[in-house]
Amino acid sequence: MRPLKWERSTGIYLLVFSFFLLVPFFYDNRTILFLMTQIFIFGIFAMSYDLLLGFTGIVSFGHAMFFGIGAYSVSVIIDRNEPTMGYLLLGTIVGIVIAGVVSLLAGLLTLRLKSHFYAMLTLALAGLFLVLAEKWRGVTGGNDGFTMQIPEFFKDRGHLYLTCLVSLIVLFFLVRRFTQSPTGRVVMAIRENEQRVESIGFSIMFYKVAVSVISGIVASIAGVLYILSLRFVDTSVFATDVTLDALLMTIIGGVGTLVGPLIGAGLIEVAHHYLSELASVHWIFERWLILFGIVYILAVIFFPRGIVGSLQYMWAKRSAKKKSSSKEKDLAS
């Protein structure tokens, strides 16, 4: 990897993250802290999806599988033993290992072919894990799920908030570093033109599988944090809706931008929270996903680059125009 290079955007990100780190020290509203925690968790999850879709061009219909693996690994191990930090760490490691192995197998089996085979296999595997969780009631509690105790440290909402935020910051900079590395450049080149990258000697399969494994592991960590915030797990963590949420967050925020999915996660979680509260006003707000379906269609038609992608495009266009006009002035003088 190249040595770390300080960029102006890094300073902006650190400034924004620093602001959020200070929030629990001067604002302790439990509802808002919980909402922010959910945004950080789904921001991590959407970022893992963007790594697949936005940076590599791989579509997954079963990304919730990795989220659910992380959630159930921690829940079952803590529930069967004691709610201590040691068992939480053990459950997290188990979740990461299982997610890594499953994503490795899914990648090895399908990524040699077209990416829609990966999409279909992940959808089938997510369905398989869902059925397994429903039928293995003795361990998973079936559709009813189960509640569990968590380590004392995370019962404090402020501590959980900071843990989720720090996890987001660390994962964001790690994934960003990966996408800016030579390996990340090859991954993005694969997204643009697989045949050309293969013709110059790179192993397409290796890079795609590597991204699949990294993405699966990051998604499983989001699942672990999600369960800590709810203290309850059921089979909904494997549902297709969870994958669709990640897709929506990525598309609305901006595919292939990393920051975009975080903004998308913020918009959707805030809208979900406040629209659900309006359910008593009109029945349409109970089906808030319908509204997001409309937003998704409009976003794809009018803003295919998403919020961040559109802003980057406008900025690049403006810079190019400025350079062109300054060149013209130089020539005229």
TrEMBL record:
The keyword Cell membrane applies. Keywords: Cell membrane, Membrane, Transmembrane, Transmembrane helix. It is found in: Cell membrane. The lineage of its organism: Bacteria, Bacillati, Bacillota, Bacilli, Bacillales. Pfam families: BPD_transp_2 (PF02653). PANTHER family: ABC TRANSPORTER ATP-BINDING PROTEIN (PTHR30482:SF17), HIGH-AFFINITY BRANCHED-CHAIN AMINO ACID TRANSPORT SYSTEM PERMEASE (PTHR30482). It is a multi-pass membrane protein. This is Branched-chain amino acid ABC transporter permease. The keyword Transmembrane applies. It comes from the Bacteria. It comes from Pontibacillus chungwhensis. The chain crosses the membrane at residues 12-27, 33-52, 59-78, 84-109, 116-133, 158-175, 205-227, 247-268, 288-308.
